[in-house]
């Protein structure tokens, strides 16, 4: 990777999955917008967000399908990939430079989950047997 990108951010919307025909066959792409925050230290030693930036993130193949299945708007994710610059045309017909992250890996950051209801399979079997 030439332009290694590693960042933690929040999904601005749920991933959008699409199937694309390529030279070597069909492949799956998940695209998502992620807000990466910038943090700084306050005078009293705390940490506060002092800015941030949005990036379009794309991931391919089986990982794309997993992202579409498990990630939702607002999820905290760790993105590892490569930043690439593209030329695109906006709604007014002007050419603009767009920076995307082509992800090698996207991981859900579980530290943001406050509570999970978990019932072990043996407990469900015991409950079913008692009924």
Q: Rg, please?
A: 20 Å
Order of helices and strands: EEEEHEEH
Assign the structural class, choosing from mainly alpha, mainly beta, alpha/beta, alpha+beta, or little secondary structure: mainly beta
CATH architecture, by name, is Beta Barrel
- Total helices: the number is 2
Q: On the 0-100 scale, what is the average pLDDT? A: 84
GO biological process, one term: DNA replication
GO molecular function: single-stranded DNA binding
Pfam families: SSB (PF00436)
Keywords: DNA-binding
Overview of the molecule:
With 131 residues, the chain is mostly beta strands. The chain has a single domain, classed as OB fold (Dihydrolipoamide Acetyltransferase, E2P) (Beta Barrel). It is built from two helices and six strands. The protein has helices spanning 62-70, 121-130, and strands at 4-11, 16-22, 25-41, 47-60, 76-89, 95-108. It has a five-stranded mixed barrel. It is globular.
